[in-house]
Specification:
This protein is α/β, with parallel strands linked by helices and about 675 residues long. It contains 26 helices and 22 strands. The strands form four sheets. Strands 13-14-16-17-18-19-20-21 form an eight-stranded mixed barrel, surrounded by five helices. It has a five-stranded antiparallel β-sheet with strand order 2-1-5-4-3, with helices on both faces. β9 and β10 form a beta hairpin. It is extended and about 100 Å long. Bound molecules: ligand C2E and magnesium ion (2 copies).
């Protein structure tokens, strides 16, 4: 009996139901599936349910569905599709992996939501066009506005033009009927007039909407207080047929003459703000900001300029070298966009890149970069260079549906290209909304072309930690803001050290950007990061300068020499202390010898807060080294620190000459102490 019931439930369900075996071959369907797809039962049984996403030649979507099923046993979403007769429909799919009779099956529920989507589109059209409703007394309203605005001009006052919509009014209509609702609506203008001046006006604009024009407004605060009064009076109960009824309203408003334009324009602005008031939780007010509109116009103007700049090829790529610290070998470059603006000159991305985000130009600009970079890489390869070239792409661009197909097409234009030298740096990873989609793009790039990927600006996004776990990226780029400050801010230093350790534990390469000095490189090497990019080596440069730079390039001996100090874990840890101390002495010297008006970083003067102090505390806690060695190191530290602080104190007291002489006298001792520490580290490899 139960089986018969289930059988009928299956057959007559309103939703399409499809069951496939583990190879995704259809084993059963119900009648609704035939109605929705237009295919007969015999055409479907035994086939592969490609029809479920016939239109999505989109490999990535199919891949996403499969991956989600594999991982979570479930996928749900909407796909655009074709029926057998070629007509389009939108299907809502939910696919579930199930186990039965010791076998694996997939259960697909399929609903045709085309009508629903069309209905929603019509509804939103209606909402957008609501201003086209005729107002019966529009002429009167125009006249009133004309008189009130001239009066306001004469008195140097402002006018409020407000748009009021009653909240949840439909419920009153539904529960109490139209007659009661109309009665209530009729009472609203009189009620509102009790808190307005006699010359102010309120008219019904359509449905439960009203327009108010209020004069005698001296400033913004009075405007808002007046609107508040209207809201409060609406909130006291209305009596209809002796029954009390509670309603609230949402009001948007704008101020004449701050907001210029016809009455229609002002009403439109007030109406837009009324929507914002509704979004703010209803029963509230929202004021129009004329500056905002100007900003939007300005932004549109800038976007048009950027679109023209793409067409007219005004953008250029600059290249910044990346180095392996321990060998000094330059293994590749990051391509960074610049705008050669016809009037403003060369612009860096901070002047324009944010504006293109969330617009279609984000993709156009990304495509321009890819095309230029691939061409450059191919030219290098033809000239026998094996450099890696990385480009920056936004997560949004990567997740566009045709990203992979488009990339594939571009790459096909260069049959000889070794794409394993191409790298994509994923930007704005905190905007990575659809991780499984990005995941597939990253995997496709790797499996089809050997293209590697890096998570850029790591440490700044909200969910970087999830991304390093979920995405099969090859490289993590420690954000330059942390790296740049790491020698002066111990907190940033901790982040850099933490990110390096994190990358190591995931077996992912790590590169630091923002390496501005030799000391940065020394500390990074001791922390276990062997790749770097930054001003210490070179700033981003145009292609014409690249060859000159490379032919004059000399690796930094300090970085290359360091490999002797990093043979084991203990050595690496202690050399970190050594470089912290060396850098502290360097800062001390710079401060004492710089002219007082020149600002150089002030060394940290609290022992426990300094890089070395923090290192020592951690070393004792984790027993990095035996206590005798740690005591000896601590002794070196305290000696240098206290002598240095004394010199700083006399410098601060204005005795600059004495502080400098003191430093000169101590310099040899400082150097000897550092040398002793150095030889201690060397001995550790024996
Ligand atoms: P990013 O991808 O993190 O690039 C590194 C930025 O750090 C570059 O700035 C580079 O010049 C700068 N930098 C490198 N080393 C140092 C250093 O030692 N000190 C300092 N102070 N800065 C250093 P740039 O070229 O101005 O680019 C800024 C950002 O603009 C990039 O950050 C990236 O987010 C974006 N960007 C650059 N090119 C493109 C592009 O082609 N497409 C997109 N969508 N964004 C791009
Ligand atoms: Mg980058
Ligand atoms: Mg970065």
């Amino acid at each position: 009996m139960r089986n018969t019931l289930l059988e009928n439930a299956f057959r007559f369900a309103h939703e399409g139901i499809v069951i496939t075996d583990e190879h995704q071959k259809i084993v059963d369907i119900n009648e609704a599936t035939q109605h929705i797809t237009g295919y007969s039962r015999s055409e479907l049984i035994g086939s592969n349910p490609k029809f479920l996403s016939a239109e999505s030649q989109n490999k990535i979507l199919n891949q996403t569905i499969l991956q989600s099923l594999h991982r979570n046993g479930f996928w749900q979403g909407e796909v655009s599709n074709k029926r057998k007769d070629g007509s389009h429909y939108i299907a809502r799919l939910s696919v579930k992996r199930i186990h039965a009779f010791n076998k694996l099956f997939y259960l697909v529920h399929l609903s045709d939501v085309t009508a629903d989507r069309k209905y929603r589109a019509i509804l939103s059209d209606l909402i957008l066009n609501r201003n086209s409703h005729q107002i019966l007394n529009k002429n009167q309203l125009e006249n009133d506005f004309g008189q009130m605005s001239s009066m306001a001009d004469q008195n140097n006052e402002k006018l409020v033009v407000a748009f009021m919509d009653l909240d949840e009014f439909k419920t009153i209509n539904d529960i109490h009927g139209k007659a009661v609702a109309d009665n209530l609506l009729d009472q609203v203008p009189n009620r509102v007039k009790t808190v307005l001046a006699e010359t102010d006006c309120i008219v019904r604009y359509g449905g439960d909407e009203f327009v108010l024009i209020i004069g005698g407004i001296k400033n913004d605060a009075i405007a808002s207080q007046t609107i508040q009064r209207v809201l409060s009076t609406i909130a006291s109960p209305f009596i209809v047929n002796e029954v009390p009824m509670m309603i609230t309203a949402s009001i948007g408003y704008t101020l004449y003459p701050d907001d210029k334009g016809s009455l229609d324009t002002l009403i439109r602005h007030a109406d837009q703000c009324m929507y914002k008031a509704k979004l703010d939780g209803k029963s509230t007010l929202f004021a129009y900001d004329p500056g905002e509109e100007e900003q939007i116009t300005e932004r549109n103007q800038q976007l048009r300029e950027i679109a023209t700049a793409i067409q007219e090829d005004q953008f250029v790529l600059f290249f910044q070298p990346k180095v392996t610290l321990s060998t000094g070998h330059i293994f590749g470059f990051e391509a960074l966009i610049r705008w050669q603006h016809p009037e403003k000159g060369l612009l860096t991305p901070d002047r324009f890149i944010d504006q293109v985000y969330d617009t279609e130009l984000e993709v156009s600009l990304g495509q321009w970069v890819i095309q230029k970079a691939i061409k450059q890489l191919s030219q290098w390869q033809q000239a026998g260079h094996k450099y890696q070239l990385s480009i920056n792409l936004t997560a949004y661009h990567l997740s566009t549906s045709d990203f992979f197909d488009w990339l594939q097409f571009q790459i096909k234009q260069y049959p000889e290209l070794d794409t394993s030298r191409f790298q994509i740096e994923i930007l704005e990873s905190n905007r990575l909304s659809d991780l499984s989609l990005i995941n597939n793009v990253v995997e496709f790039c790797k499996s089809e072309f050997g293209i590697t990927t890096a998570l850029d600006d790591f440490g700044t996004g909200y969910s970087s930690l999830t991304h390093i776990r979920v995405l099969p990226v090859d490289v993590v780029k420690v954000d330059q803001s942390f790296v740049r400050r790491m020698l002066t801010e111990p907190e940033d230093c901790k982040i850099v050290e933490g990110v390096i350790a994190l990358a190591q534990s995931f077996n992912i390469q790590v590169i630091a950007e923002g390496v501005e000095s030799i000391a940065h490189g020394e500390v990074l090497l001791a922390m276990g990061c062997n790749q770097a990019q930054g001003y210490a080596l070179a700033r981003p440069m145009p292609i014409e300068q690249l060859m000159t730079f490379l032919s004059a390039y000399q690796p930094f001996s300090q970085w290359c020499a360091q490999s002797g100090l990093l043979k084991n874990h203990k050595q690496a840890r202690l050399s970190l202390f050594y470089f912290y101390l060396k850098h502290w002495i360097h800062q001390l010297q710079e401060r004492l010898f710089a002219e007082p008006e020149i600002k150089t970083e002030w060394p940290i003067t609290q022992l426990a807060d300094s890089h070395c102090g923090i290192w020592l505390e951690k070393a004792r806690y984790h027993h990095y080294l035996d206590n005798t060695t740690l005591d000896q190191i601590s002794h070196y530290h305290q000696y240098i620190f206290h002598s240095g602080n004394d010199l700083l104190a006399s410098y601060l007291a204005g005795d600059i000459h004495a502080s400098r002489a003191g430093y000169n006298a101590l310099e040899t001792t400082f150097k000897t102490t550092l040398a002793e520490l150095h030889s201690l580290i060397r001995r550790m490899s024996e």
